[in-house]
Write a structure and sequence with these properties.
This protein is mainly alpha-helical. About 90% of the residues lie in helices and about 0% in strands.
Length: about 110
């Protein structure tokens, strides 16, 4: 089967007028137009449904601004908590080192 060619509407109309007459050509052209419109409507509906499906999928898969803000708040809390813990352990470490050095100097001084 050959590849379909683009044929202008006027060419089809002229061909039908020559073969069948004006009235019959108009009836056939009206039928063709209605069928083309039906097919276009079906294609448009299918495309709209596909777009809706993609939008829903994107909404469910990708994060929204609210999700990003919630995540940022959670991360801020966790980082703040970790900073506090690190500062506390830093003080514990240095106090322990100072006490150890003090005890070592007392021990060395007495002997």
């Amino acid at each position: 089967m050959d590849t379909p060619q683009n044929i202008a509407r006027s060419e089809i109309h002229n061909f039908l007028v020559r073969r069948l007459g004006e009235k019959e050509a108009e009836e056939i052209m009206a039928y063709i137009d209605s069928e083309v419109e039906k097919e276009a409507a079906v294609n448009i509906d299918a495309t709209k449904q596909e777009i809706t499906l993609w939008r829903e999928e994107m909404k469910n898969v990708f994060a929204t601004k609210d999700d990003a803000n919630t995540l940022q708040k959670k991360l801020t809390k966790r980082v703040s908590s970790a900073e506090g813990t690190l500062i506390m352990w830093g003080f514990v470490f240095w106090i322990t080192v100072i006490l150890a050095v003090f005890i070592i100097f007392k021990f060395v001084e007495n002997h």
